[in-house]
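User: Sequence recovery, please. Input:
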């Protein structure tokens, strides 16, 4: 089993950031967490720090954000990921239960592992944070 030690949360909702931090704490999940409010900030951080900062184990990516949404993030990320030694697992996290969004996440097979609806619950965390080695 592989345990998640670091993660990026890419989501524009500051309340979700707060709630997610509390959910981690309530479930005794100690993980180094970096928050980004849109896909552009996350992509730029990755681009500028890819040689100096180790990629996280996990990225939780919102679909709908200003400046650069989750799909645009994935398009840019896909161009860069081949150069990474460590390839994070990405989960789409959204309040959208649109079949279009859920289906689109499957178009990024190999990048996006699964699609979860907000709010994230304990069972979702268990699925995300304890994974089999690949």
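Assistant: Recovered sequence (134 residues):
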């Amino acid at each position: 089993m592989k345990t998640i030690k670091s993660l990026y949360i890419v989501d524009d909702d500051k309340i979700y950031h707060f709630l997610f931090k509390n959910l981690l704490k309530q479930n005794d999940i100690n993980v180094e967490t970096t928050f980004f409010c849109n896909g552009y900030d996350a992509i730029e951080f990755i681009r500028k720090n890819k040689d100096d900062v180790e990629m996280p184990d996990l990225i939780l990516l919102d679909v709908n954000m200003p400046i650069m949404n989750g799909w645009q993030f994935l398009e840019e990320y896909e161009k860069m990921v081949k150069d990474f030694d460590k390839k994070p697992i990405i989960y789409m996290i959204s309040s959208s239960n649109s079949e279009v969004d859920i289906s689109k996440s499957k178009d990024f097979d190999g990048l996006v592992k699964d699609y979860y609806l907000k709010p994230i619950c304990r069972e979702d965390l268990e699925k995300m944070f304890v994974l089999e080695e690949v």
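The CA atoms of residues 8 and 34 lie 5 Å apart.
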